[in-house]
Amino acid sequence: MPELPEVETTRRGIAPHVEGREIVEVIVRQASLRVPVPEDLVERLIGARIGELARRAKYLLVPLEGEAPGTLLWHLGMSGSLRMARLGELPKKHDHLDLVLDDGAILRYHDPRRFGFVDWLAGSAAQDSRLARLGPEPLSEAFDGERLFTRSRGRRLAVKPFLMDNAVVVGVGNIYAAEALFLAGIDPRRSAGRISRERYERLAAAVREVLAAAITQGGTTLRDFVGGTGEPGYFKQRLNVYGRDGQPCRRCGAELRLVTLGQRASVFCGHCQT
Ligand SMILES: [Zn+2]
């Protein structure tokens, strides 16, 4: 599933190819995504100029300038990806939407499971209800151990689902929560309200570390956004615990354990994480 680093990698990958360009054609091959493609999308987009791309949590924001200014709110869902295609490059199966730009380049949306969507918002995205409730960005100043400590007081919830709550901090999905808890040495089953301020400082630092590393690794495959597979590089990361249950801990050699927390599989080291 594309998580925050993959969306950020996508933003950085496509930005140089789309910013400042005018949309000259829109091809919708499949309108039935998680949110149906708005019927008037084509009409609104033709002739619009693309502004500076932004990201909020796992949403990609594409500002549009012109007669009908607005913002495209793009979510990649479970299996979506955006990449640049060249004029004349035939669409593949599951290539649902093309934005053809004035230099002939095509921004192409691919999504086999169709849990992603693209929606059009009038004006800026800040007032949209999907964005208004979100907690701070994990790589911003607003996110730190103090916030985790304060928000967790009185909470009996296990720390892993607490960390994955978008109202606490956005974009920390299953992979990165598991990896950050390993780096911070915290047992994912531990009650969020019983963890000290010092340990939350370590956890916040670990969240930043794993996300920043994942974005950097995604960055090494940026060329893939033009003419390549368009697959972000998140499986290339060196994962310590995610998906490694039954294998030895890289730090101590103990067998990694699997538990289910908040309906999500969670792998951890019972020796290094307390
Ligand atoms: Zn260990």
From TrEMBL:
| Any Pfam family hit | H2TH
Keyword list (alphabetical) reads:
DNA damage, DNA repair, DNA-binding, Glycosidase, Hydrolase, Lyase, Metal-binding, Multifunctional enzyme, Zinc, Zinc-finger
UniProt-annotated catalytic positions: P2 (schiff-base intermediate with dna), E3 (proton donor), K58 (proton donor), R264 (proton donor)
Q: Residue ranges of the Formamidopyrimidine-DNA glycosylase catalytic domain? A: 2-116
Q: Does the keyword Membrane apply?
A: no
Cofactor binding note of this UniProt entry: Binds 1 zinc ion per subunit.
Under catalytic activity, the entry for this protein gives:
2'-deoxyribonucleotide-(2'-deoxyribose 5'-phosphate)-2'-deoxyribonucleotide-DNA = a 3'-end 2'-deoxyribonucleotide-(2,3-dehydro-2,3-deoxyribose 5'-phosphate)-DNA + a 5'-end 5'-phospho-2'-deoxyribonucleoside-DNA + H(+); Hydrolysis of DNA containing ring-opened 7-methylguanine residues, releasing 2,6-diamino-4-hydroxy-5-(N-methyl)formamidopyrimidine
What terms describe the molecular function in GO for this protein? 8-oxo-7,8-dihydroguanine DNA N-glycosylase activity; class I DNA-(apurinic or apyrimidinic site) endonuclease activity; damaged DNA binding; zinc ion binding
Cofactor(s) essential for the protein: Zn(2+)
Q: Which residues form the FPG-type domain?
A: 240-274
Domain of life per record: Bacteria
The UniProt entry, under InterPro entries, shows: DNA_glyclase_Znf_dom_DNA_BS, FPG_cat, FPG_Glyclase, FPG_N, H2TH_FPG, Ribosomal_uS13-like_H2TH, Znf_DNA_glyclase/AP_lyase, Znf_FPG/IleRS
What EC number(s) has UniProt assigned to this enzyme? 3.2.2.23, 4.2.99.18
Which residues make up the binding site for DNA?
A: H94, R113, R155
Q: Extract the SMART domains matched here.
A: Fapy_DNA_glyco (SM00898), H2TH (SM01232)
A Gene Ontology BP annotation from the UniProt entry: base-excision repair
Task of the protein: Involved in base excision repair of DNA damaged by oxidation or by mutagenic agents. Acts as DNA glycosylase that recognizes and removes damaged bases. Has a preference for oxidized purines, such as 7,8-dihydro-8-oxoguanine (8-oxoG). Has AP (apurinic/apyrimidinic) lyase activity and introduces nicks in the DNA strand. Cleaves the DNA backbone by beta-delta elimination to generate a single-strand break at the site of the removed base with both 3'- and 5'-phosphates.
Q: Which family does it belong to?
A: Belongs to the FPG family.
Q: Which NCBIfam families match?
A: fpg, PRK01103.1
Subunit note = Monomer.
Protein name listed in UniProt: Formamidopyrimidine-DNA glycosylase
Q: Which organism is it from?
A: Halomonas lysinitropha
User: Source organism lineage?
Assistant: Bacteria, Pseudomonadati, Pseudomonadota, Gammaproteobacteria, Oceanospirillales
Q: What's the name of its gene?
A: mutM
